[in-house]
Amino acid sequence: MTEDNQKRQIPASSEIEAGQSVAEDLNELMKVRREKLHELANQGIEPYGEKFQRTHYAADIIQHFEAMDGQPAVLAGRIMAKRVMGKASFANLQDSSGNIQIYVRLDELGPEEYACFEKLDIGDIIGCSGKVFRTRKGEITLHIDSYKILSKSLRPLPEKWHGLKDVDLRYRQRYVDLIVNPEVKQAFITRSKVVRSIRNYLDEKGFLEVETPMMHPIAGGASARPFTTYHNTLDMKLYMRIAPELYLKRLLVGGFDKVYEINRNFRNEGISTKHNPEFTTIELYQAYADYEVMMDLTEDLISQVAQEVLGTTTVEYEGVTLCLAKPWRRVPMLEIVKEYSGLDFTQLKDADAAYQAAKKLNLDIEPGASWGDILNVVFEEKVEDKLIQPTFIIDYPVDISPLAKRQKEQPELTYRFELFIYGREMANAFSELNDPIDQKGRFLAQVEKRNAGDDEAQMYDEDYIQALEYGMPPAGGLGIGIDRLVMLLTNSSSIRDVILFPLMRPRD
Predict the structure, then answer these.
(1) What's the CATH code of the domain at 210?
(2) Is 12:35 a contact under the CB 8 Å cutoff?
(3) Which is an annotated GO molecular function term of this record (predicted)?
(4) Are residues 300 and 425 in the same domain?
(5) Which of 8, 17, 74, 16 is closest to 39 using CA atoms?
(6) How far apart are CA 103 and CA 301, in angstroms?
(7) pLDDT given for residue 367 in this prediction
(8) What is the pTM of this model?
(9) Which residues of the chain fall below pLDDT 50?
(10) 121 and 61, same structural domain?
(11) How far is the C-alpha of 259 from the C-alpha of 250, rounded, in Å?
């Protein structure tokens, strides 16, 4: 261990307490750790080090032990366990790759260095150098000849055998969760691999990654309640992005054929195991394509990502085996609603007839709901949770699809699909509406809904209509929820398990 020439002036815990705010009540364990910090300062030892050059990670040594046996190595990491055995001590060192045992001896370090090592706490971060060997019990170990304190831990980690089990606390203190629950870190490594795999797939297909605004003068591209903000210089109200769709389609007007954005969206809605107010999606648009092309792309993309990241297209989720290998079932909404509810909406020709039939199923239908709204309510209540294996629900009603192209044969329906896996929506796509006159009429219908009190209805975007009037090629568009996809591939029951820092209500 090295010492600085100048002693660092650190007050004892009694002095710290004297100036401590009322909100910070140090417990006894923390007092002891602060006293140790004070002792280090008095010895001229810097407890918060600077740059440290390591040569290996724990996993490197363990995976390549035959080549590393007897060789020097320099590691850095956090002490997770320690056993003092008189003149020799063992500790468990954890770095970003895993854990490895370290071993020190009194006669090699010297009395002062060894005494300091004995006082190290669980959670302290150190750098150490030595040689690799295997103990008589078969444990791969670094026999260290020197070490340096890099960061003194002033708060004790959760109790060794129980870890951090309080779910609420795990989300609030993700940094502690990552330290004591290694499987949590693995979930986020998987998330990173999923995003990288999606990027690679689309890049190879000739898509161009772009960036569009996150602050919009008009909240559009989806039906959702937005967050609002304000720009002082421009003296204008702005909305946090609920979807990038309308900006991405402007790029199709401008001449790009294939674009995508991995984006963060913000929706001022409820919080649950499936919803977080800010979430990540991949949205892509392809000129001269349609929703069938998007279906092919969706099942190919997700199955390939699963194979690349997990090595299989068969995944276990909450005790259910799911097969992500293509092809997937494709079924019209009208057909599957009849299958599970018994209601034939092809015979229920208007909103009143649909309302009367739906009420017999004891469904909560809003007064004044349209035919398409009622069809969607029946689907959500009677069908959605039954869709366990990957299933494309196709041909959604116009009433709930303001940006999708209308079908010629059945003008009350659109060329739209949603993908469901394990009863959850995973993707949404359609043949894009590129008729500016029809689009204007859809926007005006949404405005009527807003005026009637629906604060999730879309706003009228005059500039987008103007863009369409210049001419947008026929196109297919697709959005996939990355958070939900990662939940599926990591067998995570809550969306908070795959978002590093989910929104939480303040404890105060």
Answers:
(1) 3.30.930.10
(2) yes
(3) ATP binding
(4) yes
(5) 8
(6) 48
(7) 83
(8) 0.89
(9) 2-25, 161
(10) yes
(11) 11
Alpha-carbon distances of 34 from 18, 121, 173, 190, 445, rounded to whole Å: 14, 11, 21, 37, 65
In contact, 245 and 283? CB cutoff 8 Å: yes
141, 157, 173 - which closes a domain: 157
Per the rule left: phi > 0, alpha: psi between -120 and 50, beta: everything else, 387 is beta
User: How many residues does the structure list for the chain?
Assistant: 508
How many angstroms separate the CA atoms of 270 and 284, rounded? 26
368 domain residue, yes or no: no
Supply the pLDDT for residue 390: 98
Helix spans in 360-451 (H): 371-382, 436-451
First to last CA, the chain: 42
Ligand-binding site membership of 425 (annotated): yes
How far apart are alpha carbons 461 and 254 in whole angstroms?
18
d(CA 391, CA 258): 25
CA 431/CA 408 separation, integer angstroms: 13
| Structural domain count, the chain | 2
Which tokens in the block code for residue 328? 């997937």
Question: Which pLDDT value is given to residue 25?
Answer: 44
Amino acid 12: pLDDT? 46
On whether both 209 and 101 belong to a single domain, the answer is no
Q: Are 117 and 89 in contact (CB under 8 A)?
A: yes
Evaluate whether residue 365 is within a structural domain. Answer: no
Distances 18 to 15, 26, 154, 496 between C-alpha atoms, Å: 5, 11, 17, 39
Same domain, 29 and 65: yes
35 in a labelled binding site: no
| Secondary structure (3-state) at 391 | strand
Residue 26: per-residue pLDDT: 52
